[in-house]
Automatic annotation (TrEMBL):
This is Fe2OG dioxygenase domain-containing protein. GO terms for cellular component: cytoplasm. The keyword Electron transport does not apply. Its cofactor is Fe(2+). The lineage of its organism: Eukaryota, Viridiplantae, Streptophyta, Embryophyta, Tracheophyta.
Length: 112
């Protein structure tokens, strides 16, 4: 049985993550296209994705607090990254109830 893990990343308002592929999992997990599931909490992020490690060729999407991104199957090896964190975009109620500091919390679940 392969272990499931959760990677926790916190991006401050000036946080970034260059385009990369997730390749740390077992060869079997990657070859089967087992999904990566990512939860966004806090400030909105500009998320890049594409078939190549070229930011100019990548597409982007805004990931807001509460958004879930899943990439698996044919999309499992997509290049992806974060180019911007948009300050003061987190839901006010989230900040008031949790004392989350400014930025974006990302929880990424994978199977190794």
């Amino acid at each position: 049985m392969r272990p499931d893990i959760c990677i926790v990343n916190f991006y401050s308002t000036n946080g970034r993550l260059g385009l990369h592929q997730d390749r740390d999992e077992s060869r079997d997990s990657i070859d089967k296209g087992l999904p990566v599931v990512s939860f966004s909490i806090g400030d909105t992020a500009t998320f890049l994705y594409g078939d190549e490690r070229d930011a100019d060729q990548a597409k982007d999407v805004l990931l807001e607090s509460g958004d879930v991104l899943i990439f698996g199957g044919n999309s499992r090896k997509v290049y992806h990254g974060v180019t911007a964190i948009h300050a003061d975009t987190a839901p006010k109620s989230l900040l008031e109830e949790t004392n989350l500091r400014p930025g974006r919390l990302n929880l990424t679940f994978k199977q190794y």
